[in-house]
Amino acid sequence: MAIRQVLHYPDPRLRQRATPVDLFDADLRTLIGDMFETMYASQGIGLAASQVDVHRRIVVIDVSADRTTPVCLINPEIIHREGVEEREEGCLSVPGVYELVERAERVTVRAQDGNGREFTLTADDLLAVCIQHELDHLEGRLFIDYLSRLKRGRIHKKLEKAQRVAL
Ligand code: GNR
Ligand code: NI
User: Fold this and answer.
1) pLDDT of 159 higher than 80
2) How far is the CA of 88 from the centre of ligand 1 (A)?
3) % of the chain at pLDDT higher than 90
């Protein structure tokens, strides 16, 4: 397993739309393992493949306090949503930024596991928020897209400069 580099906003690769997984092979399982390792090493509660520059519909999540409840979603689709809730979000691809975002309070997601078997999962609280945040990544969408132009402009300026310094 290996820790992979996480892309940072405003890297244009974060805007790519991910395509479905059709091959449930050893390479996929290696990628999933690397994504969990990267997520845990970064203290994140979720990670989308898009963030490690793999533009496939793969998400890993662990919202448990003791980090022992891994969830892997392949080709996930939200098939039901209810309620509205506002929560503070952050993103490993938008470091140092935490802002309130409105999401559905409860979602049901249909997905496949690492072996291609279909399952559904109903989630609320932080897990529901995280699922919606990760599925956005697969569409090339970031949580800062929901903020005002003014806030997004400030964030863009700050992170664009940080990126320039890092290169
Ligand atoms: O680690 C993360 N924390 C978080 C907090 C509130 C809402 C969403 C998230 S996801 C984020 C990890 C990440 O960037 N996943 O794409
Ligand atoms: Ni994110």
Assistant:
1) yes
2) 10
3) 96
pTM, two decimal places: 0.98
Domain ranges of the chain: 12-166
Query: Per residue in 105-139, is it b (16+ CB within 10 Å) or e — as a string?
Result: bbbbbebbebeeeeeebebeeebbbbbbbbbbbbe
User: How would you class 19 by CB atoms within 10 Å of its CB: exposed for 0-12, middle for 13-18, buried for 19 or more?
Assistant: exposed
Q: Using CA atoms, how far apart are residues 50 and 155, in angstroms rounded to an integer?
A: 20
**pLDDT on residue 5:** 98
Q: Which atom of ligand 1 is nearest to the CA of 133?
A: 8
For domain 12-166, the question of CATH label 3.90.45.10 is answered with yes
Residue 118 is a catalytic residue? no
What pLDDT was estimated at residue 165? Answer: 86
For residues 132 and 87, what is the distance between their CA atoms, to the nearest angstrom?
Answer: 12
**111 Cβ inside 6 Å of ligand 1:** no
Catalytic choice (88, 134, 139, 160): 134
> What pLDDT, on the 0 to 100 scale, is given for residue 167?
77
Strand partners, 101: 87
